Amino acid sequence: MTFESLVFYFFSAVLLWSAAMVVTIRNPVKAALFLVLAFVSAASLWMLVEAEFLAIVLVLVYVGAVMVLFLFVVMMIDVNLAELRQGFGDYLPLGGLVAVLMVVEMAIAVGPAQFGLHKVPIPAALGSHYSNTRALGELLYTVYVYPFEVAAVILLVAIIAAIALTMRRRPDTKYQNPAQQVNVQARDRLRIIKMPTEHKS
After folding, report:
1. Residue 163 burial (CB count, 10 A)
2. Helices vs. strands in the chain: H and E counts, helices first
3. How far apart are alpha carbons 41 and 10 in whole angstroms?
4. What contacts 169, CB < 8 A, 6 or more positions away?
5. Closest by alpha carbon to 59, among 45, 79, 73?
6. Are the beta carbons of 26 and 85 closer than 8 angstroms?
7. What is the DSSP letter of 123?
8. pTM exceeds 0.70 for this model
9. In this structure, which CATH number among 1.10.1510.10, 1.20.120.1200, 2.40.128.110, 1.20.1530.20 belongs to the domain 1-79?
10. Could you state, in order of their start, the residue ranges of all structural domains in the chain?
11. Which of 86, 112, 111 is nearest to 26 (CA)?
């Protein structure tokens, strides 16, 4: 067994263990931290297949931005851990059955035999002049430009829907009118009063 194989199995084991901890641990803050560990392990696996751009994007976008936002949200909301622990064992058999079915369906649907990957020979190592970022960009914006645009539209619709669902006007909340703030003059907010000076004897 080569050193690369050992590194692959190590990071794969860490990734599977951290992913299992994400869905089984009851503390949401610890679950988010285990998700960070899963992302870092997945980025390490990307590095092994010489996909440095994808690994860096995974760390910068998900670990550096999304997971920090998740941690802030989880730590700011008041999560009652006692209620989360109630009834956890009642749903465990059903949840385990659903998880097994999902794994079997994913193996059948996206297995290597469906894409002919078992017939593809292992490519030779690329030289230092090869840029996987350029190759990914050329493939994404030429062959897969239409699915890329469709995915962008779907994400835009999801963002608009999330904003529309969370925007609720409350009568007890004070709102600001930007148009009135822009049109305000200095004399409307500041009044200079002249007062006679007082002399102490």
Report:
1. 9
2. 11, 0
3. 9
4. 175
5. 45
6. yes
7. P
8. no
9. 1.20.120.1200
10. 1-79, 130-165
11. 86
Cα(44)–Cα(59) distance, rounded to whole angstroms? 10
Residue type, 24: T
Q: What is the CA radius of gyration of the chain?
A: 28
pLDDT for 126-139, tens place per residue? 666 777 788 888 88
Residue 135 token pair:
């190759």
pLDDT in tens, 99-147: 889 888 877 776 666 555 555 555 566 666 777 788 888 888 888 888 8
Q: Report the C-alpha gap between 31 and 25 in whole angstroms.
A: 6
Give CA–CA dist 79/182, Å, rounded: 40
Q: Could you tell me which residue, 155 or 191, shows the higher pLDDT?
A: 155
What are the residues whose beta carbons fall under 8 Å from the beta carbon of 75, sequence distance 6 or more?
29
Q: Which amino acid is at 41?
A: S
